Hints:
By secondary structure, the chain is an all-alpha fold. It has helices spanning 2-24, 28-54, 62-73, 80-92, 109-121, 133-141, 144-151, 153-172, 175-201, 222-227, 234-239, 255-265, 277-290; strands at 59-60, 269-270. The protein has one domain (2-210).
Amino acid sequence: MVAGAVVLLPLIGVAAAVELWRRHGIGWMEIAALGVMYLICMLGVTVGLHRHFAHLSFKTSPFMRAVLAVGGSMAAQGPVLFWVVTHRRHHAFSDKPGDPHSPNQHGGGLHGLMSGLWHAHIGWMFSSESTDWVHFGRDWLQDRMVFNLHRWYPLWVACGLALPAAVCGAITGTWLGALQGLVWGGLIRVFLVNHASWCVGSVCHVFGSRPFTTRDESANNWIVAVLAFGEGLQNNHHAFPSSHAHAVHWWEPDLSAWVIRVMAKLGLVWDVKSPSARAVADARRVQAVGAGKW
């Protein structure tokens, strides 16, 4: 039921946005609400849920940890512990039996491809399979603050919807303004953030480049990387999963890595993990040998 709501309610928001646009147009306030909330929630997922909580790519204070957890939870992709254990299980069995959302375990041909993409993008959320939380999330299960943030997940999702509604309502002084904020900064934002994020598990395990040899089908897809703030550089990420950056070159699109580096400069995070130049070169050498170039 929860998965159905996450998928269907934003679709209702899309229909509402079209009708509101037709009747009242769209102005700077709606665009700003969408842009600001997209930035907050996507970074909450990429910097918070993914790179900090799932991969421990950097350390931070309890206050910043709470900020990251709330920002990621407002994206409505599941509570902190659920997100972490599901993602760690994905890495443990990437594109093999046991991966909760691989697109590459559904047979060959066009039917297998389309079935796999559907499963990896949305279908996996309706599966009855369960993940061992103790095995994949023992560290955070023992953290009382994180566990409490996990328990209050419905509140954070509600805040992610109420915040843009309240701000836009205050700016305009009207209920229509509040509705516009709810639709554009809330429901449309959930739709866009989540589908961009889900593309990482579906599109980026089928389409893209593979500069590193990994034991799965992870690929770098720049379109998804731009939309998901670096997450689309999946081949890089699966080659160096604990790195704070998915980009291995400065010109690869990874906004999340730049945000983490700024946070480090400000003293908000520390012990930021990165692969050495030697490790990157060695990984490329393995790829070259596999391609018969050495």
